[in-house]
Amino acid sequence: MKKAFYLSLTALLLSGCTQTYVEQLAPQSHFDYPNSNVYPLGFVKGQASTTSFFTPSFKTSALEYEAVSNALAQKPGADMIVNSFRFTDVTQLLILPIYTVTYRVEGTAAKMTTGQQALH
Questions:
Q1: Shortest CA distance to 92 belongs to which of 60, 42, 39, 51?
Q2: pLDDT tens track of the chain, all 120 residues?
Q3: Nearest to 52 by CA among 105, 13, 91, 95
Q4: In the 3-class helix/strand/coil scheme, how is the chain assigned residue by residue?
Q5: Cα separation of 56 and 16, whole Å?
Q6: CA nearest to 38, candidates 117, 118, 120, 114
Q7: Residues 60, 80, 110, 69: what is their CA dihedral angle, to the nearest 10 degrees?
Q8: 0.85 surpassed by pTM
Q9: Residue (of 103, 22, 9, 105) closest to 56 by Cα position
Q10: Which of 13, 48, 76, 91 has the fewest CB atoms within 10 Å, counting from its CB?
Q11: End-to-end Cα separation, the chain, in angstroms
């Protein structure tokens, strides 16, 4: 009986809810140079998380940079991510005031090379 009580209490303390927000559809993660050729390398996913107490910490540029870097690391030679979806997941434990913010990036990794076109 005690084991079931403690198991139920632990489940209640660790239960929570997650809300997912679609941040944006980004055409590209980095600047592509004029007169450059962009070649797709394949689909990638990257994420970065942070945990805070009492108040949720929102997405920061460092969190976004880490998620994009984690995604680019999946394809060797990738310089940028094109046609990417950006998501923010906020998870809150119900009893304890602990928040986890996860920033996710999903898109197509691409390699950029300087083009040989004549610019007029």
A1: 51
A2: 788 777 766 666 666 787 788 888 888 888 887 788 889 999 999 999 988 887 767 778 888 999 999 999 999 999 999 999 999 988 887 777 788 889 999 999 999 988 776 666
A3: 91
A4: CHHHHHHHHHHHHHCEEEEEEEEEEEEECCCCCCCEEEEEEEEEEEEEEEEEECCCCCCCHHHHHHHHHHHHCCCCCCCEEEEEEEEEEEEEECCCCEEEEEEEEEEEEEEEEECCCCCC
A5: 14
A6: 114
A7: -50
A8: no
A9: 103
A10: 76
A11: 82
* Count of beta carbons in the 10 Å neighbourhood of residue 41: 18
**Would you say 101 and 43 are in contact if contact means Cβ atoms under 8 Å apart?**
no
CA atoms within 13 A on the CB side of 61: 0
